[in-house]
Amino acid sequence: MNRIKNRIYVRIFIGATLLLLVACDNDHKMGSHNLDAMPVPAAPERQQDPAQLAMGKQVFQNNCASCHGGQAEGAANWRKKDMDGFYPAPPLNGSGHAWHHSTEVLGNVISNGSVQGQGKMPAWKGKLSGQEISAVIAWFQSTWPQPVYDAWFEMQQRGR
Ligand code: HEC
Q1: Using CA positions, which residue lies closest to atom 29 of ligand 1?
Q2: Which of 8, 43, 97, 98 keeps 20 to 30 A from 110, CA to CA?
Q3: Atom number of ligand 1 nearest to Cα 88
Q4: pLDDT tens per residue across span 69-105
């Protein structure tokens, strides 16, 4: 009697294992349709044009450092609204969320500033040239650690 019981258990065990294998295989097949599994080209060399970086650094020190900090580290307590109910200047050195934005979006934020009445970021359109805005973005991106830059690059590729 016991032997028969054992046999039944063995069969159930084998059956369950087979089912599991089939399920895993299906998962695997579905996984290959997942967008996350799409190959992304490797990040290119970082922006290293010394003349552009020098210009960007100058633009940053003259116009941005007073709020965003000399090394783009952001205002202290930048995650907390100030007494007027607005957020202080966030870091641009890769420790904030600036890297979640494409170059285009960063350029728009810098040109147009905060949405009116919703923040204290000034608009730089008319005060800085397009070349200066590109240079300042290149400069603060040059402060990003490599993994942040890679994540930004990958996101920018996926957004296309
Ligand atoms: C008067 C202070 C001040 C100055 C000067 C200033 N900013 Fe800002 N900046 C802010 C604030 C505050 C925010 C957050 C905006 C919001 O909450 O709407 C911000 C946001 C930003 C963002 C968006 C960051 C993100 O994480 O989404 C970028 C990019 C930026 N600033 C770049 C610059 C650059 C480049 C300059 C110089 C050309 C500059 N800022 C000058 C206060 C300033």
Answers
A1: 106
A2: 43
A3: 12
A4: 999 999 999 999 999 999 999 999 999 999 999 999 9
Q: At 145, is the pLDDT very low, low, confident or very high (cuts 50, 70, 90)?
A: very high
Find, among 130, 137, 121, the residue nearest to 68 by Cα. Answer: 121
From the list 77, 120, 115, the residue with the least C-alpha distance to 96 is: 77
Q: Is there an atom of ligand 1 within 6 Å of 28 CB?
A: no
C-alpha distances in angstroms, 135 versus 89, 99, 142? Answer: 19, 16, 10
How many angstroms is it from 89 CA to the middle of ligand 1? 5
Work out the angle at residue 70's Cα, subtended by the Cα atoms of residues 140 and 103, and round it to the nearest 5 degrees: 20
Q: How far apart are CA 112 and CA 105, in angstroms?
A: 10
Q: Is 118 in the pocket of ligand 1 (CB under 6 A)?
A: yes
Question: CA geometry: angle at 158 spanning 138 and 147, to 5°?
Answer: 50
Do 144 and 99 contact (CB within 8 A), yes or no?
Answer: yes
Select from 67, 97, 127 the residue to mutate for testing ligand 1; criterion: most ligand atoms less than 8 Å from CB. 67
